[in-house]
Write a structure and sequence with these properties.
mainly beta, seven-stranded mixed sheet, four-stranded antiparallel sheet, 17 strands, 57% strand
């Protein structure tokens, strides 16, 4: 089992069993402080992917590459040696105007892609797809003028919810273009 932490020095990953820090590719300080992170899984991937956002609007993906690979004439055997696991950056992109990414959520969209919903400090919610080739594709971005998004959650393949931080509102958006389907009010702060 692995765990992660974020901060000014980038991302750090530990193996809980051995209590050892694992090697990660170097975080580029010019991308800003790591502000949030989430483990994501794709159906066809052999390993989990760590996704993180930064204070300057960068989204990055790290995937584990075991160094110890044994091959024979009929099979390839991956023997992960926890002391030799290396988390390498597979994809990095700056989103929008470069505002801080403050929250991320993911959903297994299909066998070939995973959806990632990102909330930024400037009231933007963006949904992206990460395909099996580790390429990031924008699905849509929506600016929410009636609420400051606190968190996002996928409802189903057709939509997801955005929860407001100050007003107690939550909004259901269409999953393919971000159009507002319905707004709800809890009449109190969440």
């Amino acid at each position: 089992m692995l765990t992660k932490s974020t901060g000014t020095e980038g991302i750090k990953v530990w193996d809980i069993k051995s209590q050892k820090e694992l090697t990660c590719s170097t975080h580029n300080e010019s991308q800003g402080t790591v502000s949030c992170a989430v483990w994501i899984t794709t159906r066809l991937a052999m390993t989990e992917t760590l996704c993180y956002g930064t204070g300057l609007g960068y989204i990055a993906f790290l995937r584990c590459s075991p160094v110890d690979v044994r091959m024979s004439w009929f099979t390839i055997e991956f023997t992960p040696n926890i002391n030799q696991m290396l988390f390498q950056e597979t994809c990095t992109r700056r989103l929008g105007s470069g505002f801080e990414i403050t929250y991320m959520s993911w959903d297994m969209y299909s066998e070939r892609s995973t959806r990632i919903a990102v909330r930024t400090r400037d009231k933007i919610v963006q949904v992206l797809a990460l395909n099996t080739n580790l390429q990031l594709e924008a699905i849509f971005a929506a600016w929410l003028d009636n609420t400051v998004p606190k968190s996002v959650a996928f409802a189903d393949n057709k939509g997801f919810y955005v929860f407001g931080v100050y007003d107690g509102n939550f909004i259901k958006l269409k999953g393919d273009d971000g159009a507002v389907l319905k707004e709800y009010s809890c009449q109190s702060v969440m």
